[in-house]
Design goal:
Dipeptide-binding Protein, domain 3, single chain, Dipeptide-binding Protein, domain 1, 27 strands, alpha+beta, 594 residues, 18 helices
Length: 594
Amino acid sequence: MKKFIAIISIMLLGTAFAVNPKLPAEIKWETNSKDKVFASPDAKRGGTLREFMMSFPMTLRSVGPDSNGAFRSYLDANKMGLIDLHPETLNWTPALATHWAVGKDFKTVYFKLNKSARWSDGKPVTAKDFAYTLEFMRSKWIYAPWYNNYYSEQIKEVIIYDDHTFAVVGGKKKSRFEALYSYAISATPEHHFRPILNKEWTKKHNWDIVPNTGAYQIVKIKKGKSVTFKRVKDWWASDLKYYKNRYNYNKRRINVIRDMNMAFEHFKKGKIDTFGLVLPTYWHKKARGKEFDRGYINKIWYYNQNPQPQYGIWLNNQKWPFADINVRKGFAHAMNMDKLIKMVLRGDYERLERFSAGTGKYENKKIRARRFDLKKVKSYMTKAGWARDKETGLWKDSKTGKLFIVEVLYGSAPHTERLVVLKEEALKAGIKLDLKMLDGAASFKTMLEKQHQVAWLGMGAGMIPRYWQYFHSDNAKKQTNNFTNTNDKELDKLIMSYRNEFSDKKKHKLSQKIQQKIHDLGEFIPTTAVPYFRQGYWSWMKFPKVLGKRFGGITDYGVAWIDQDLKKKVMKMKKRGRPYKKAQTIINKEFKAK
């Protein structure tokens, strides 16, 4: 392949070139072939994994308006990174890149691509696809302010040395781990996007099937009904050490079933292969009966050490009445989470105490979420100048004359029972909650548009906490993840210091200060934590001998497979009413926090 003789620095309005790039002589390339594989050599290829989703995606785009919904996780799972984190050791392992290095400036990371890497349409993956990522993510036509900002301020340039060797230059120096974590950007298929990226892209290309580098590609879309993925023929990474015996299904079909109870009935009939049993009602009550007693379906409860998602109540401070910090704190003390956990969740869940819990040294473990306390509600509401209305018993805003009635927006029917408990308890505190449930995609869109007063919402978490997208004033606008519309100068300063800090030790302290500030502002109310996964699965689904990992669940990392011969046998025995084996429930506490 011909070498490029340019340093490509993609700018907002074009492309700049320099000549004769040379790799620094001091680069020390790294790779990893020493960690244990976590897939099973017994895995068998074939079959269709049948899953369900509760709402149909609003788009197949992974950036831009309406793209940040639940379905995006399926799309992201088929985008291989340059490197991966091993789920047990947290060491870096090869993926699209065979080798990597961190420069002496701790801002530049270098990668050597696997020369066999291919897009799902057969085109080779080259360094140009990473340079194009900057152009794409900086484009005004993607209508994605977070990406525009991140790929302008945090990612400065891509330096191409040849087709398979390049560097990413970050905006700030970072520790070795964080430099690789932050600057190992994704590839973007230039050959697909360049001809179509214009001001009409987000309108005309909602349902484009984009080439990816992972094991599966979408092959069929039934609007409002289902999406089917098919394994890429001769997938280029099939025989790599850390990818061998993974992603074993020929197809993955995700059907829309808008009612959780109906989905569970499909599962019991064998029309869905696996079903999450985290909800106590399902684990304790519904996951019983002949399908379980006769060994057709197994159950597993496995603790892990994943960073906890940001499950919480997000108060929009640009909507009445939450501009007042005393009102926010009073509202928090009116939320009886302990009773909710005890009554509805059977004590299985834990109270989430703070934002970014489960992130090790980044976490401020001194912070405890505000508890239900009627005296404190009264104290804060009185400070805010409110008084109890004698006729209704609700707090009344002295400035507007409005009663404390707020709408709580949520997007999942199984959560209704939880919110009903909070509603009943809040009335004791003089606050009325009007519960409004929308389809999952529609509720999230409303939250992104900042049309909510109160959002009942969970957001994902990573190994290193991210605060800018959730709480910096730059994102106090539509189509961002700042669901609280937080705009606080002191917090902005802390977030930017954290974002720019090189020292891990100082970064940990800044993270803890940020968490304290988030708590003090009272705009995010932590709700529940689930430090485990619970799953039901049909006996024909097989897994490695070690079912769980320190990070992730049994169906993560593509290590499962379907024994099709066993499936025929189990279904035949089910039809005849004969047991397959004894009921099996696995409970593993190896990684439970002490």
